[in-house]
Prior knowledge:
single chain; mainly alpha; 3-stranded mixed sheet
Amino acid sequence: MTLNQTSLIREFILLGLSNDPTQQIFLFFIGLLVYLLTLAGNLIIITLIWLDRCLQSPMYFLLGNLSFIEICYTSSTVPKMLWNILTGDKTISFIGCALQMYFFVTLGGTECVLLSAMAYDRYAAICHPLRYTLLMNQPVCKGLLMISWTIGSVNSIINTAFIFSLDFCHSNQIDHFFCDIPPLLHLSCSDTTLSKMMTFTISGCGITMSFFLTLLSYIFIVSSVLKIRTAQGRIKAFSTCASHLTVVSIFYGTIIFMYLTPSSCHSVEQEQLVSVLYTMITPLLNPLIYSFRNKDVQGALCRIFDKRR
């Protein structure tokens, strides 16, 4: 047929993680619990940074924005998944699917660049402590935030445009719980060579560049820390970036597996498992990692509770 058959698809069906009714009940309650804990944890971080003067610093400005992104990031996929399980209606409109992908990819790309900005913040604090206020002043912080959102948005616009210009004529059943790039590429009846190449190039450049800048920052950090003569001083310096390094490792590990490895190297089940990790588990872990491993956040929590007594 010469007609662009994408127009024949008015809605998609999200098959989800399981068709077993018993497993779906379990997935609903676990998903709801994880989502509520994610919202609560990240909102607590944002509230603490807003209320406590001791947290009014560039590092916590970026952390507060990371928490906001995490809330939006998980909210772009999990509520729809929970609604589909609860109602049994697994449909999503063509436009709704495109919008879900756009917001999901935008927020993921923005987080990717923001983590690099946070690595630069730690580099400035540890390697250039006397110039830190100059290197990380308010205009610089806002500029880094604006760059993060711009790169994330542009990356998403291009990817979404390429994916939804494909034909979907054989089936409208997406073997996933949200509209992501890999399952939609699998579903298309068009020649996806160009789309795969563009997705790999655009997303790959963004992820690789952010990862490289983060890695470069930590190479300088490690080099600087090793020059500290006392073991206590080295431990103290490393502790200031331990939380960020943990988050970076989890985030980039899952993203690189999903978007920068050939789809033939992993099954649909593996893709779904990794998707659960970076859409639900990582946003949940971030506030836990930063609160339990961070004395400043713990101190802010204590001060807030002391004021209310």
